[in-house]
Amino acid sequence: MYHIGRGLWRSRGRRRHGSSGGHPIRAAFLAVLCGVLIGSLAPAAAAGWDRVTWGMTASEIAAAYGDRALRLSSPIVFGDSYVEVALREQVFAGYPFRVYFQMDPATHRLAHVMLERRRQYATPAIFAQVNAALREQLGAESAACGSPADRGKPTTLRRIWRRPNETVVASFLDFAAEILLYSNDPARRILIRYSPAGHGSDACMPR
């Protein structure tokens, strides 16, 4: 490497009058170096889901989706969040889901994004397709827990993906279980919840 450098510098003294600029090897080296420096200075992509990033306001979320955004007249309150903006339909794993943009009650900014299917549209087969799609996108899940219904206990299945910039939890919930003959109970759900890294990662811990 040292001898190449000496050659590069000596070539400048022997350059003929009227010749083009610097040595081609040196020019290529500088071009690569500039590319590396520019890449290292470029900001990292903001974390979030689809068109939104964590910390957005409800107005910013609605603006991101335009006519597709559904502004709710009254917020839907969840356990740790509330929703003012939703999407009626977002296809995932080949099936339409409703999307809820869940806001932090303290900051009033986006904290989670939850996709949901209900009733007879939430089946074990579709949940299997959801898991397959998430594995294709994110790799193998970090944790799995839950079990099918037994003696009247509800079915609760969860799969968790813990990544450097996000946590994804897929859940299949059937509180009707085998108590009802038909599986159209409104308590049946398939949920996919996206959160900033660290949030929701304890979904498989004993409660």
* Quaternary organisation of the protein chains: single chain
Task: Provide the number of structural domains.
Answer: 2
The global form is globular
Which fold name corresponds to the CATH topology of the largest domain?
Protein Transport Mog1p, Chain A
How many whole angstroms does the radius of gyration measure? 26 Å
**First-last Cα distance:** 61 Å
Give the low-pLDDT segments. Answer: 1-21, 32-45, 177-185
Walkthrough of the structure:
The chain is an alpha+beta fold and 207 residues long. The chain has two domains: 2-41; 48-196, Protein Transport Mog1p, Chain A (3-Layer(aba) Sandwich). Helices cover 26% and strands 35% of the residues. It contains four helices and ten strands, in the order H-H-E-E-H-E-E-E-E-H-E-E-E-E. The protein has helices at 2-13, 24-41, 58-65, 124-138, and strands at residues 48-49, 52-53, 69-77, 82-92, 95-103, 110-118, 143-147, 155-163, 166-174, 189-196.
Tell me the layout of helices and strands.
Layout: H1 2-13, H2 24-41, E1 48-49, E2 52-53, H3 58-65, E3 69-77, E4 82-92, E5 95-103, E6 110-118, H4 124-138, E7 143-147, E8 155-163, E9 166-174, E10 189-196
Antiparallel strand pairs: 1-2, 3-4, 4-5, 5-6, 6-10, 7-8, 8-9, 9-10
Summarize this structure briefly.
With 207 residues, the chain is α+β, with helices and mostly antiparallel strands. The chain is 26% helix and 35% strand.
